[in-house]
Specification:
Layout lengths: L5 E7 L2 E10 L1 H16 L5 E8 L2 E4 L15 E3 L6 E4 L3 E7 L9 H17 L6 E3 L2 E8 L2 E13 L2 E9 L19 E2 L11 H16 L4
Parallel strand pairs: 2-3, 4-5, 10-12
Antiparallel strand pairs: 1-2, 3-7, 4-6, 7-11, 8-9, 9-10, 10-11
Helix pairs in contact: 2-3
Length: about 220
Amino acid sequence: MKQDTTIIEARQAEIEWRVSKGYVNYAQAVSAMEGRVEGILNHTYPEQVWLLEHCPIYTAGTSSKESDILEANFPIFKTGRGGQFTYHGPGQRVAYVMLDLNRRAADVRRFICDLEEWLIHTLGKFGVKGERRQGRVGIWVVNKAREEKIAAIGVRLRRWVTFHGVSLNVDPDLTHYSGIVPCGIKDYGVTSLSALGVSASMSEVDSELKNSFREIFGTIA
């Protein structure tokens, strides 16, 4: 696996955008997020959106069940985000969102809704109709009459500062999901932009994520 060696940073108003080239170790990413959250709380660092890819790993959210591990093909990391088991790996764009809701709207439901809308807007730029489903977290598409999940959401808040975030399947190896019951949902599939016939580079996805973010979250009031 190529390692994360190049960091590109840019600013959108007071929000710092960080894009990692290469693969970021999951434990190191969690540690970095923890540090950024403390910096935001102490007003020493700006808010940040961090775009990256991980080496193959299964992560267990606070609602995860051991029975949802079918075959431990990859390392398992118990993390503090909400949700159940999910997979991260090459070809999947992870976006960690560290925003201060004290400066925005201190409303968890609204924040989750905004994350969903962000993903839906981004998918729409590629001609893909992303949808919400009652009782199912994440963003779904209908592919040949079958409902499949294309993006996941799992967040955590500390004193109203958010971290963790979303993951969007661009072109991952979808067979890697076979070792778990993704998000505890057994009756539906998992898909990606590539599997839907959309050829998009990670940089193209990043560009649309940034554009859609501005539409949904704007800047700090």
